[in-house]
Design goal:
Layout: E1 12-15, E2 20-23, E3 29-35, E4 38-41, E5 48-49, E6 55-56, E7 61-64, E8 69-74, E9 77-81, E10 86-90, E11 93-98, E12 100-104, E13 109-113, E14 116-120, E15 124-129, E16 135-141, E17 145-148, E18 157-159, E19 163-167, H1 169-175, H2 180-192, H3 215-220, H4 227-243, E20 289-292, H5 295-301, E21 308-318, E22 322-335, E23 338-349, E24 354-367, E25 372-380, E26 399-406, E27 415-424, E28 436-444, E29 448-457, E30 470-480, E31 484-492, E32 498-505, H6 507-513, E33 515-522, E34 531-541, E35 544-553, E36 560-568
Antiparallel strand pairs: 1-12, 2-11, 2-13, 3-6, 3-8, 4-5, 4-7, 7-10, 8-9, 9-12, 10-11, 13-14, 14-17, 15-16, 16-19, 17-18, 19-20, 21-22, 21-36, 22-23, 23-24, 24-25, 25-26, 26-27, 27-28, 28-29, 29-30, 30-31, 31-32, 32-33, 33-34, 34-35, 35-36
Length: 571
């Protein structure tokens, strides 16, 4: 899994499948970050392309397209809009017209849907409609949240950290008497974006972690060349697709693994008695459920991953009877505030032996307001747009035993920094420990991204007879917006050998056909010849992803073709 998520904001979940209002003190709204298709308009005006720094007046609307997202700052509050979502600013109210909205609200906030009002004071909250149309309100931390159904005779329900209230669909429909403004906003949203649907958001760090118009997958999917790394290639495709529904993991590595879990409906206990008690306030006879959430549910909404067992099976076949198959099992969760993950992958090369690799074994400590994120243990680390991780990039092995620190850079939202102390850079391929360090600094602008990579690894057999500090620059640019993205990495590796990689991604193919396609070429690196690769991926179903590969080695004969599938066995 290559979910690259480094986020310095403590997010509040707002998941609303229908129109709603967030009422707060009027403040200047500014779009602070944009990924892919984001547009805005003033009341009654035409839609215009949004950019970072765009000011929004009262009455303005903002919408996002497929695989798109944006961040809006309202005074001290931060709101992040998911893909295929739309909001409208109306004075001191924010109307969520479609999709989802996540935010970090520093000031008191009122969330209103119909006549149902949730009064929030300095807390992280999740609000949304489940598959049956029930309204779900969760207080993840802080609190209290006072939920008033707006129905005479029904007492407000006060919920604290870790509590959840479910308002049945019938009650929601009874209470949700839409105002004229709501109907107008909703009609406008449907008219301009009829295909918008309520997809669960994936808020990777849109400031640092996005690569132009294909932020999620260029960042979270790094395609390996050759069967040595193809196991991870196949695994990550399902994880990457699942990442599109994750609601905010910031650990950089593990976000995508349990992303489907966010949509699960927690089985509720029997309804509380109509009279109520200390833990179950009176509900006027309405079927409103209230229970204490377990730590996993809270952790999930806060961006950590819930404990579960996850399994993938994969098979890949190339020319010349080069094939492999295997599985991957992952256990992850939260223990005393620290996220952990362990994964093993048994795999078999056809005409070969079966081996089992420990691919993940790490813990994450997080404090966004102080020291940021610290990841300790065997972890997947690979940042940058390059797909060919065998010869085309400085960091050629994504799995390392190391400690990685990502400090918060609140005063520089467009910048990112990762510092790693490496205990073993190649745990599977080179005997002994190959210690060292690596540094990555990155910057994102409206037009693209730029990254500086530095790495030093000791005790590695060198083909040049020397080990040195490797240094590369990588970048990505939307050369033809929504049609063609270009990217590359240039510099030298730890042996002083030149790295020259250039690639292209085609957003239009995904937008129209749900096909991810990368075309990339890498020049000769030492004794390794240059290579041109094509990678195409298509999600046949939510549990099945197909892939096709084509490699052309400089000076070689013909093109090496390959096909593969990954099946998601456990949700």
């Amino acid at each position: 899994m290559r979910a690259k998520i480094t986020c310095s904001l403590v997010m509040m979940g707002l998941l609303v499948a229908g129109p709603g209002f967030v009422s707060r003190a009027a403040a200047q709204a500014t779009i602070t970050s944009v990924v892919k298709q984001v547009a805005h308009r003033v009341a009654g005006g035409d839609w215009q392309e949004s950019k970072s720094g765009t000011k929004l007046a009262a009455g303005a609307s903002v919408r996002t397209g497929k695989r798109s997202k944006c961040e809006v700052k309202l005074g001290p509050n931060i709101i992040r809009l998911s893909e295929r979502s739309a909001i409208t600013l109306r004075g001191n109210q924010i109307s969520l017209d479609d999709g989802k909205l996540y935010g970090d609200f520093k000031e008191d906030t009122i969330i209103k849907g119909g006549k149902t009002t949730a009064t929030i004071k300095g807390t992280d909250v999740y609000i949304g409609f489940d598959a049956d149309g029930n309204l779900v309100v969760e207080c993840l931390s802080g609190g209290p949240v006072l939920l008033d159904l707006g129905i005479p005779g029904v007492a407000p329900v006060s919920i604290g950290a870790g509590q959840r209230v479910t308002v049945p669909q019938a009650v929601v429909q009874t209470a949700a008497t839409a105002t004229e403004a709501t109907e107008e906003v909703t009609a406008a949203a449907k008219a301009v974006a009829p295909e918008q649907t309520a997809n669960t958001p994936n808020f990777k760090n849109v400031q640092q972690g996005a690569y132009v118009s294909f932020a999620d997958d260029v960042k979270s999917t790094q395609v390996s060349i050759g069967t040595t790394d193809m196991v991870a290639v196949l695994q990550q495709r399902v994880e990457q697709k699942a990442a599109a529904v994750e609601g905010g993991d910031e650990t950089q590595r593990p976000a995508a693994v349990v992303t489907q879990q966010i949509q699960n409906i927690i089985v509720e206990p029997p309804p509380p008695p109509a009279g109520g008690d200390d833990e179950n306030p009176p509900t006027g006879g309405l079927d409103v459920h209230l229970r204490q959430l377990d730590a996993t549910r809270q952790a999930k909404k806060q961006g950590f991953l819930a404990p579960r067992l996850d399994g993938n099976t994969f098979i890949y076949k190339r020319d010349g009877n080069r094939a492999l198959w295997g599985m991957r099992f992952t256990e992850s969760g939260l223990y005393r505030g620290a996220f952990y993950q362990v994964a093993v992958s048994p795999q078999t090369l056809f005409q070969g032996n079966t081996s089992t690799q420990l691919t993940d074994a790490y813990a994450v400590l997080r404090s966004p307001d102080t020291y940021g994120d610290i990841i300790i243990g065997r972890q997947r680390y690979l940042k940058g747009p390059v797909q060919n991780v065998t010869t085309g990039t400085l960091i050629t092995q994504e799995i390392t035993d190391s400690i990685t620190w990502s400090p918060p850079l609140k005063s520089h939202p467009g910048l990112g920094l990762d510092l790693s102390l490496i205990q073993d850079a190649y745990p599977f391929e080179v005997p002994g420990n190959q210690g060292g360090w690596r540094v990555r600094a990155s910057s994102q602008t409206e037009k693209g991204t730029l990254g500086l990579n530095l790495m030093k690894v000791n005790a590695v057999p060198s083909p040049t007879g020397r080990n040195r500090i490797g240094a590369t620059l990588d970048g990505a640019l939307a050369l033809w917006p929504e049609k063609l993205d270009v990217y590359g990495e240039f510099g030298s590796n730890i042996f002083g050998q030149n790295i020259r990689t250039f690639g292209a991604y085609f957003p239009h193919l995904y937008d129209k056909y749900d096909i991810d396609a990368y075309l990339e070429t890498t020049g000769a690196v030492g004794a390794s010849p240059g290579i041109t690769v094509l990678r195409m991926y298509h999600a046949v179903s939510p549990k099945l992803t197909a892939m096709m590969t084509a490699d052309k080695i400089a000076g070689g004969r013909g093109i090496n073709l390959g096909v593969g599938v990954v099946a998601k066995l456990v949700k």
